[in-house]
């Protein structure tokens, strides 16, 4: 009886084994899927990594903001700020630094993933705007200081005309626009008081009494610039305050409640709420049940299996492998189901934003599928290992390797080694075609027939924290990005002593001279040496010698490249030559033919000579033979274009018939225009203008000078020009 009952029980268990095996496989696949979700969709680090890999933050600055489709909206928003558009966009990474933007995004990512994981029941997306508001205020102050420093005084015939122009200048300042000129007139004490009273009208009423003495003294001495310098920051700060208060009112304080805005826009958060219901169910119900059932099913397979432990182990191995296979098939199905993309962007979105969202979505999907696939491989490998161990265990001593197989294996290894010995030197020693400036086709081209990507005001960078930068990356990064000509401005930093000496001969009152010297000591402390600045060194400066040394280091690390410097020189030729010598560049300097009409050598010959650094000046011409005036050798187009439609090929400095041709291809609206760079730096826009100017001037364009070279594809245009030639 007992044997019969035992047999019946064994038969029932054998019938249940297939069911247990299926349950085990399904549970393993479910646990693999939930583990994948925890490591990807529910992990803040995963989303942060995807954004980093796709360069999402840089692309917002360099692609989305400057997209022509985005310009109307961007300009409308920027028009509400108390400084010109260009002052904000060129300083965008100062107003809203990438690290601030990244911190804002990280906070939202952590909030969303925490919500999906069930750590909190409500979703609240917020952004702290205080750093942005502070930076906007600081930018307004800095911008005004540069504005006042750049204006010139013009004489006016009488006091009424003086007051009229003074009021006009004051109104310009309060709107953040530079006055066309500053009036000058010898004023009596009474007239100075009247003029000061008129000027103080642009200042908030509670600040007028404190500023009145300083403004009256400045007006009495005829120093309108100092008077404006006193009232301007207060006026601009007031506009900044109004603008920031308006922004605070719009978003409800210093913190922007993004959730509230999203909830009112056709329930944009509905997909997120639905996703949470799924993740909550998966974590709270499905995953625990799958874990319990999976463990129970595997335990049942073990204890109900054959008596031989090796055969039991093989059953577990097949279950794990099957679970891994099912996980892999699910990943393949997910890939096929999303072949057309993860997110469909609305047609109203700018193309650059749609591309960014599409790239981020696809990268996230790749990461999820990659993680699932890796999990599947781990399960397959674990299952295969268990099956192999089981098979070896069962085979026992009968498992042997024949001598013939050993011989075949030895011959194969020896043959592979011999082949490697023979072929490796050939592979290593294979010579690459000679390249000049990155291309084998340019080696036999004369210097004056190649096109070079040129960085306008190369030293004025976001990386070096210039106010109003015209480039983002530093000098070395620009060279790495394909720039082969750098336009740089050299200056000496005028110290307080030099300015004080000049003030002695001025008509400023002693009190006003003291005020000016105090301001200089505070805002413009002395700095020795030679500098690369953009107009005003206190708005940004890097050392000339270190920058030259950095350029030389790059040239020595890239022995097949030629670099050109076009120097806007506010420093004398002798001091400049001493800087090049101190930087250790004398062995790299190329000496042009004294006759500008003579042909230039081929690029390959210049590289072979080792003289691969060409240096031009905008003012000087020698006496060093390698330091020549650019406009004796080259010509240029105008450069003060305020919109893409204004760009022309008209002759400017250098005339019309020179061997070298500089194309100034950038927009200037009270500073560089980051927004317009998205339009003019497009590959097609650069090529169209180059071809047009070449037809009009009868010479190939050699230097394509751009702002924000990392926006658009000016490099691609230059490569296309060289390919054409």
UniProtKB/TrEMBL annotation:
Transmembrane region(s): 285-303, 315-334, 374-394, 406-428
Keywords noted in UniProt: Membrane, Transmembrane, Transmembrane helix
Pfam families: PI-PLC_X
UniProt KW S-adenosyl-L-methionine keyword: no
SUPFAM superfamilies to which the protein is assigned, alphabetical: PLC-like phosphodiesterases
InterPro entries attached to this UniProt entry: PI-PLC_domain, PLC-like_Pdiesterase_TIM-brl
Keyword Disulfide bond: no
Gene3D superfamilies: Phosphatidylinositol (PI) phosphodiesterase
Protein known as: Integral membrane protein
Organism of derivation: Streptomyces durmitorensis
Lineage: Bacteria, Bacillati, Actinomycetota, Actinomycetes, Kitasatosporales
């Amino acid at each position: 009886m007992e044997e019969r009952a035992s047999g019946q029980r064994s038969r029932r268990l054998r019938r249940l084994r297939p069911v247990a095996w299926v349950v085990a496989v399904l549970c393993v696949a479910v646990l693999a899927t939930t583990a994948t979700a925890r490591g990807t969709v529910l992990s803040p680090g995963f989303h942060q990594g995807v954004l980093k890999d796709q360069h999402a933050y840089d692309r917002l600055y360099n692609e989305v903001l400057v997209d022509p489709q985005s310009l109307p909206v961007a300009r409308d928003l920027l028009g509400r700020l108390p400084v010109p558009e260009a002052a904000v966009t060129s300083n965008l990474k100062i107003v809203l630094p990438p690290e601030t933007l990244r911190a804002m995004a990280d906070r939202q990512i952590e909030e969303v993933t925490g919500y999906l994981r069930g750590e909190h029941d409500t979703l609240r997306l917020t952004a702290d705007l205080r750093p942005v508001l502070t930076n906007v205020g600081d930018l307004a102050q800095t911008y005004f200081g540069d504005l006042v420093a750049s204006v010139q005084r013009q004489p006016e015939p009488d006091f009424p005309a003086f007051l009229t122009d003074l009021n006009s200048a004051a109104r310009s300042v309060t709107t953040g626009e530079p006055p066309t000129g500053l009036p000058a007139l010898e004023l009596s004490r009474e007239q100075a008081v009247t003029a000061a009273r008129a000027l103080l009208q642009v200042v908030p009423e509670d600040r007028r009494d404190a500023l009145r003495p300083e403004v009256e003294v400045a007006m009495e001495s005829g120093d309108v610039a100092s008077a404006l310098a006193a009232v301007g920051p207060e006026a601009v700060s007031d506009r900044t305050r109004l603008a920031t208060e308006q922004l605070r009112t719009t978003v409800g304080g210093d913190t922007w409640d993004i959730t509230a805005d999203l909830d009112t826009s056709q329930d944009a958060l509905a997909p997120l709420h639905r996703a949470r219901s799924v993740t909550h169910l998966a974590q709270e119900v499905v995953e625990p049940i799958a874990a319990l059932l999976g463990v129970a099913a595997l335990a049942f397979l073990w204890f109900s299996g054959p008596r031989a432990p090796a055969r039991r182990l093989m059953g577990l191995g097949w279950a794990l492998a099957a679970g891994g296979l099912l996980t892999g098939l699910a990943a393949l199905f997910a890939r096929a189901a999303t072949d057309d993309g993860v997110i469909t962007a609305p047609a109203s979105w700018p193309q650059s934003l749609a591309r960014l969202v599409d790239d981020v979505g696809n990268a996230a999907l790749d990461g999820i599928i990659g993680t699932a696939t890796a999990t599947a491989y781990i399960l397959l490998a674990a299952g295969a290992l268990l099956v192999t161990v089981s098979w070896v265990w069962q085979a026992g001593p009968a498992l042997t390797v024949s001598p013939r197989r050993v011989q075949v294996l030895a011959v194969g290894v020896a043959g592979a080694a011999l082949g490697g010995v023979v072929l490796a030197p050939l592979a290593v020693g294979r010579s690459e075609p000679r390249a000049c400036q990155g291309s084998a086709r340019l080696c036999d081209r004369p210097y004056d027939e190649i096109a070079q990507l040129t960085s306008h005001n190369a030293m004025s960078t976001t990386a070096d924290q210039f106010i109003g930068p015209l480039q983002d990356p530093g000098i070395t990064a620009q060279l790495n990005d394909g720039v082969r000509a750098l336009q740089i401005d050299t200056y000496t930093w005028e110290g307080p002593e030099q300015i004080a000496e000049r003030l002695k001969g001025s008509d400023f009152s002693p009190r006003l001279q003291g005020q000016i010297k105090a301001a200089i000591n505070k805002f413009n402390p002395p700095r020795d040496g030679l500098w690369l600045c953009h107009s005003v060194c206190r708005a940004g400066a890097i050392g000339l010698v270190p920058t030259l040394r950095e350029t030389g280091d790059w040239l020595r690390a890239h022995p097949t490249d030629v670099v050109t410097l076009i120097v806007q020189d506010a420093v004398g030729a002798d001091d400049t030559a001493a800087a090049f010598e101190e930087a250790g560049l004398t062995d790299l300097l190329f000496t042009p033919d004294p006759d500008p009409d003579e042909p230039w050598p081929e690029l390959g010959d210049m590289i072979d000579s080792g003289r691969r650094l060409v240096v031009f000046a905008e003012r000087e011409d020698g006496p060093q033979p390698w330091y020549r005036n650019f406009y004796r050798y080259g010509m240029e187009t105008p450069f003060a274009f305020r919109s893409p439609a204004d760009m022309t090929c008209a002759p400017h400095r250098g005339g019309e018939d020179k061997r070298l041709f500089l194309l100034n291809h950038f927009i200037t609206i009270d500073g560089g225009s980051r927004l317009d760079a998205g339009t003019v730096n497009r590959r097609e826009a650069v090529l169209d203008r180059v071809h047009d100017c070449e037809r009009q001037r009868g010479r190939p364009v050699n230097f394509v000078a751009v702002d924000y070279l990392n926006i658009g594809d000016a490099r691609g245009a230059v490569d296309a020009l060289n390919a054409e030639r």
